[in-house]
Structures are given as structure tokens and as C-alpha cells.
Amino acid sequence: MTGHKVYADLTLIINLLMDAVILWAAAKLAGFKFSYTRIFFTAMLGAIYAVGYLFYPMNIFYSFPLKIIFSCFLILLAFYPQSWKDLKRAFQYFYLINFIAAGAITGFASLTAGMKHINNISILWLLMGVIIVIGLGKWGQKYLVNRIIPQLLNYMVEIKFNGHQCSGSGFLDTGNMLRDPLTNRPVLIAEYAWLKNFLPLDLIEFFETGSSETEILSFAANSTWADRVRVIPFSSIGRHNGLLLGFRADEINVSLGDRNICHKNLIVAVYRSKLCQDGHYQMLVPAEILQSG
């Protein structure tokens, strides 16, 4: 009976530690504020639940569906009153980190399987898992935002207009709600510097001289591209009733890897400054464009 109590104690400590660091890492990756006290008590509840499995392994409370429900309850307990969207993201990170940590511990265990001379090797497995989870929480969000997400949301885009063709990288921007006032179709945004060599001289002069928004309407009516030019109204934080100058492209092709999506006669709004300081993309692609053309 004493040996069983020791095992239960170890199970409690191990699960308390792992649940606490996994909840902490999930909160860090999700990017919202949290309470260390609530994380501790939530992890303690999770650890007690794990200990209960030692005594009642066949109980319905340890069936797969109820395990999922209980983990949802832990997320809710640790992070409420975050929005449901944030809670869903925390739940996804919670399980992602669990799988990464479990895989790393299993791999480390297989590597050290023949090292019989090392005492308490299971403690090393636990330590490895804790280190990996803390690393994910501390540096995972930065790596996710700077490396993973840009790669997932970048698409090769080819624009054809007036006999010209230019290709570049477009970033999926779900916040791009610009629409052509004449057709109500979505508008792609592209950097002026990237398009400059393909634009007519009067458009280049318009952008180079820093013409104001009040001159856009008169320019659009008299441009050599009068049949292509569009004036796109927009609003942003701290700025209302702004105007962007754009033009109608003959064809826009977006590569999704396994297939291409083609749109004809969409408007490309020209943005004077850089869209990405690192140069990873030259266009902002609205989500609607990724649907079939």
C-alpha cells in the first residue's frame, strides 16, 4: 500500500508540473494575459484527475470523450473570461504542445533506452519535456509569427495588364476589406516600387511628386489609363474617407501550390510605401480572391 501511495505522489507531482507549464505555454502562444495562481490551481485539478485514474481506471470519467470535455473545462477554468475565439486558440495550443512534448519525451526515452547505468532516467525524460514546453512558451510565439505564419499565408501572385506581366509574393490579409465601388469586387493592394517599371509615365509622375488625395479624382479623369484607373475609398484607424489610386488588371493568377486561381478585371490599388519592411511580400491579398475565379 505504501508503494502505491508513493506512485500516486509522483503522478501528482509530475502531472502538476507538466500541466502547469503546458497551460503557461498555451497562454503565451495564444498571446493573452493570464494568472499564475489560476494556472497553478487548474494544473492541480488536472493532476488530481490523473491520480484518480490510478485507482479507478475503468471509470466512465476516464473515457476518451470525458477526457476531452475535462481538458476543455481546464482551459475554461484557467483562462476565462477570455473570448470564445481565444479559448478555442488556447485549446488548440494546449493539445499541440501536449503532442510535441509527448513526442519529444518518447524520442528521448528511446535514445536513452540502453543507458542502464543512469539513475532516475525517467526524471531526465520529465526534465526534457519541461524544457521543451518552456522553450515553446518563451520563443514559440515569435517563431510562429515571424517564420511559420508568413510561410503559410504567402502566395505567388502574377498580374497581367496592358501587355505587361509581373510576379511577386502576396500575403493573405483577412482585414483587407477594400472593394471596387463600381463592381463591388475585392481589391488587391500592391507596392508602388514593385509596379513602377510597368506603369505609364503620368502615373509614375503622380506617385513620385507626392500628389495629395484631393488631386486623385482629377488625375483619374485625365490619365492615359482613364479606362483602367479606379479611385478606391478606404477607412483605417485614425483616418476616415481616404482614397487610393488603383488600376484594372487584365488578369490576376494566384498559385495555391496544387492549383492556380485566375481572376479577370480585378482592381489593384497602389500603395506608395512598403507593405513589408523585410521584403517578404509586395502585395496584400484579400481572402475572397483565394476563392475560385
What can you tell me about this protein's structure?
The protein is α+β, with helices and mostly antiparallel strands. The chain has two domains: 2-151, no CATH class; 162-290, no CATH class. It contains eight helices and nine strands. A hairpin with a 4-residue loop joins β6 and β7. α1 (2-30) runs antiparallel to α2, α2 (36-55) runs antiparallel to α3 (64-79) and α4 (84-111) packs across α5 (121-153). Residues 1-6 and 117-121 have low confidence and may be disordered.
Please describe the structure with a list of short key phrases separated by commas or semicolons.
9-stranded mixed beta sheet, 293 residues, 2 domains, disordered N terminus, single chain, alpha+beta, 49% helix
Short description:
The protein has 293 residues and is of the alpha+beta class.
Q: H/E order of the elements?
A: HHHHHEEEHHHEEEEEE
Overall 3D shape: elongated
Helical stretch count?
A: 8
The amount of helix comes to 40-55%
Summarize model confidence as the mean pLDDT: 78
The proportion of residues in beta strands is: 15-25%
Task: Please mark out the parts with pLDDT under 50 across 5 or more consecutive residues, or reply none.
Answer: 1-6, 117-121
Overall radius of gyration:
28 Å
Distance between the termini: 70 Å
How many strand segments?
A: 9
Taking strands numbered 1, 2, ... along the chain, how are they ordered across the largest sheet?
A: 4-5-8-3-9-2-1-6-7
Q: How many domains, as an integer? A: 2
Largest sheet: 9 strands, mixed
Structural class estimated from helices and strands: alpha+beta
